[in-house]
């Protein structure tokens, strides 16, 4: 490799020999730049990570001719390969690692491919093999805001606010954007959870669940939890269980004596009443209610 001189002369029988001609640096032997060990790693490590993570794309570059080398990172994010990043290596006569830090957006989730291209100042080029990586939903953290220990009347249309903040941990605990799907879950019998009440986060990343207990919920201290559920761009997460009190409404019905009846003061008066609740069908066999007649 390098520059070479060229010397030429000619001889033939019955001819005078030619002069000897020498050209200094008549030509040069050069090589393509080399690419080796292409790899990628997300913040969590490996070839799988969230779209909000910072990804390292690295390859070793060498040009033994000491040419400047333009290094490019290309990726197929679902619509053919596109140039993501580029840099110039000016000291790559020995193997030199080149790293690109790359981020993506939530529309690029899926199984993807990448490759490197190296082109030196002579326009000699080389390309790495194509390798795969997977962009997945971002990890989330659900943070309790309000709604622990509150009491909600079951009768009529009373509601209680259960509020949770949603954070995107792949992007450094930045609050997730509005429109993230979430659900709040409340136990119906102090043990089994209901199917959930859905809503979306607001502009501050807060998920507000307005819980209106019906007759499906027993009057008791119930547990609740909530967070991201079934969102297209964010992984599910829940806060740890919190509690709330569902308050039923007792209803009295005096059966005897009938209104307007007259009794002799020396006689015993039989007092009889029924006690029911705001959910008479579900709680038809009400027990342990304390009744006081005056």
Give a quick precis of the structure.
This protein is mainly β and 294 residues long.
Notes on the structure:
By secondary structure, the protein is an all-beta fold. It contains no helices and 22 strands. Strands 4, 6, 7, 9, 10 and 11 form a six-stranded mixed β-sheet that branches. Strand 9 and strand 10 (125-127) form a beta hairpin. It is rod-shaped and about 165 Å long.
Order of helices and strands: EEEEEEEEEEEEEEEEEEEEEE
The main sheet comes to: 6 strands, mixed
Could you say which structural class the secondary elements and strand pairing correspond to?
mainly beta
Radius of gyration: 39 Å
Low-confidence residue ranges = none
Mean pLDDT: 91
Terminal CA distance: 113 Å
The tally of strands reads 22
Helix content: under 10%
Strand content: over 45%
Shape: rod-shaped
Question: Helical element count?
Answer: 0
Task: Explain the layout of strands and helices.
Layout lengths: L1 E7 L12 E9 L4 E8 L6 E3 L4 E8 L6 E8 L4 E9 L6 E7 L7 E11 L4 E3 L3 E6 L3 E7 L3 E4 L6 E9 L5 E2 L5 E6 L10 E4 L5 E6 L9 E8 L13 E6 L2 E7 L15 E6 L17
Parallel strand pairs: 4-11, 13-20
Antiparallel strand pairs: 1-2, 3-5, 5-8, 6-7, 6-9, 9-10, 9-11, 12-14, 14-15, 14-18, 16-17, 16-19, 19-20, 21-22
